[in-house]
């Protein structure tokens, strides 16, 4: 069974390189655009099935009486499985066919979302259930299970996309293209907040999981038609040769051809000090990112007395303005700093600190929109570069997915701390203490 599964997902073989330069140019032009928009749309839909939880939290709390600490378990379950799965699935993705790997992950994510909503249909609150536990407790752990399962399947999405972008775009253009693709995070979050907010307001929290789940299945089928694996699987030369852009790692890559994946993995990830530094930095980036994404609505609703609709509108500015911040981070690092990413990261992280302080003491409601938007701009830039672009460029193309998975695992340690930690601190010390 496992053998058949491995065979199904196995990376397609390299085809004989096409010699006709004009045909190569036409194919590269066609497939690079097609791969890019498919990855963008696919990952956007992953986020529709991920960020819906933020809008559903008030409804879950109101219907079942869950505390902030209990609600924090939901976020932590996804972040824990997502963090571990991002590394494991990253290793698997390096040797898998992106065309099959990505759509399958999206379908399984959709099923987990649908099961999350339907579990509340079969267990009604107010009754004693198994082992004398209240039904609400049993239901909470069902929610935790399905949301954790969703996190595992979602974790396969980013490594697959990272592999595609690494193989289809060269170093001189990768910062810009990666930042443009990374806007799918913000577009997905923005759409999820608005769409899920509308669905919850009209039909209750369950629809925030059912509708995105059904949509994700349809998009996954479309992705299988759109995607392909590496350029070499279509008979195209590698991207560096096509762009006449010798890689700084050419000699290293030639040596890697004679080494096993495990040896390449050890040298470029486990024994790579830069990767470890990026991974540690990513913990703190994700504490800020998910603290804002998951708890901002509840914070605005409870601490600043905003309605849920107003709070959702304010939160939507986080990813919306974050798009501009993400694009600027990639373009500035490519054009101004000539591919050096560290200066941009430092500038952006200073902006994060300033925005958090100003948001804490701001009393003008309309100014919240601006501050939350700027917080998104300064947060999503480092989020895109540190765990994705910088990780790939600090390792090897042959372990690109694993490199992003490794840093991503550390990032989601921060996400777990942010989710459960914030809920606990709010319960103990209030929003000011948190």
Automatic annotation (TrEMBL):
Q: Which residues cross the membrane?
A: 35-53, 73-93, 105-126, 138-158, 178-201, 207-224, 275-292, 312-332, 344-363, 369-392
Q: GO biological process: any one?
A: phosphate ion transmembrane transport
Q: Which Pfam families match?
A: MFS_1 (PF07690)
MF annotations from Gene Ontology: glucose 6-phosphate:phosphate antiporter activity
InterPro entries xref list: MFS (IPR011701), MFS_dom (IPR020846), MFS_trans_sf (IPR036259), OPA_Antiporter (IPR051337), Sugar_P_transporter (IPR000849)
Q: Tell me which residues make up the Major facilitator superfamily (MFS) profile domain.
A: 35-434
UniProt-annotated location(s): Endomembrane system
Would you tell me the Gene Ontology cellular component terms?
Answer: endomembrane system; plasma membrane
What's the superkingdom here?
Answer: Bacteria
Q: How does it sit in the membrane?
A: Multi-pass membrane protein
Keywords, A to Z, come to: Membrane, Transmembrane, Transmembrane helix
Q: What is its main location?
A: membrane
Any idea what this protein is called? MFS transporter
The organism named in the record is Candidatus Scatousia excrementipullorum
């Amino acid at each position: 069974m496992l053998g058949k599964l491995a065979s199904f997902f196995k990376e397609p073989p390299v085809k004989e390189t096409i010699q006709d330069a004009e045909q190569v140019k036409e194919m590269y032009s066609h497939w690079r655009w097609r791969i890019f928009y498919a990855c963008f749309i696919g990952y956007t839909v992953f986020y529709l099935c991920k960020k819906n939880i933020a809008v559903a939290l008030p409804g879950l709390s109101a219907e079942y009486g869950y505390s902030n600490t209990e609600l924090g378990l939901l976020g932590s379950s996804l972040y824990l499985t997502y963090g571990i799965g991002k590394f494991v699935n990253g290793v698997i993705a390096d040797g898998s066919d992106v065309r099959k790997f990505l759509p399958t992950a999206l379908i399984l994510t959709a099923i987990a979302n649908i099961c999350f909503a339907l579990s509340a249909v079969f267990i009604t609150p107010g009754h004693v259930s198994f082992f004398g536990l209240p039904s609400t407790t049993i239901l909470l752990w069902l929610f935790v299970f399905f949301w954790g399962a969703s996190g595992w399947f979602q974790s396969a999405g980013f490594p697959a996309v990272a592999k595609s972008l690494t193989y289809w775009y060269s170093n001189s253009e990768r910062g810009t293209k990666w930042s443009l693709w990374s806007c799918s995070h913000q577009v997905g979050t923005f759409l999820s907040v608005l769409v899920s907010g509308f669905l919850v307001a009209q039909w209750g929290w369950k629809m925030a999981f059912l509708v995105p789940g059904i949509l994700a299945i349809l998009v996954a089928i479309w992705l299988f038609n759109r995607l392909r694996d590496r350029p070499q699987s279509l008979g195209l030369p590698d991207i560096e040769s096509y762009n006449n852009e010798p890689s700084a790692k050419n000699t290293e890559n030639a040596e890697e051809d004679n080494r096993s994946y495990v040896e390449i993995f050890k040298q470029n990830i486990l024994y790579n000090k830069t990767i470890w530094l990026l991974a540690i930095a990513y913990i703190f980036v994700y504490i800020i990112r998910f603290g804002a994404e998951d708890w901002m609505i509840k914070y605005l609703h409870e601490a600043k007395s905003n309605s849920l609709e107003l709070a959702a509108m304010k939160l939507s500015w986080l990813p919306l303005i974050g798009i501009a911040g993400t694009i600027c981070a990639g373009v500035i690092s490519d054009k101004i700093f000539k591919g050096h990413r560290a200066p941009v990261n430092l500038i952006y992280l200073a902006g994060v600190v300033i925005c958090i302080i100003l948001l804490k003491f701001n009393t003008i409601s309309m100014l919240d929109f601006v501050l939350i938007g700027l917080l998104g701009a300064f947060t999503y830039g480092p989020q895109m570069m540190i765990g994705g672009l910088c990780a790939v460029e600090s390792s090897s193309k042959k372990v690109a997915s694993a490199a992003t998975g490794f840093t991503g695992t550390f990032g989601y340690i921060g996400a777990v701390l942010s989710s459960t930690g914030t809920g606990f601190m709010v319960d103990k010390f209030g929003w000011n203490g948190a």
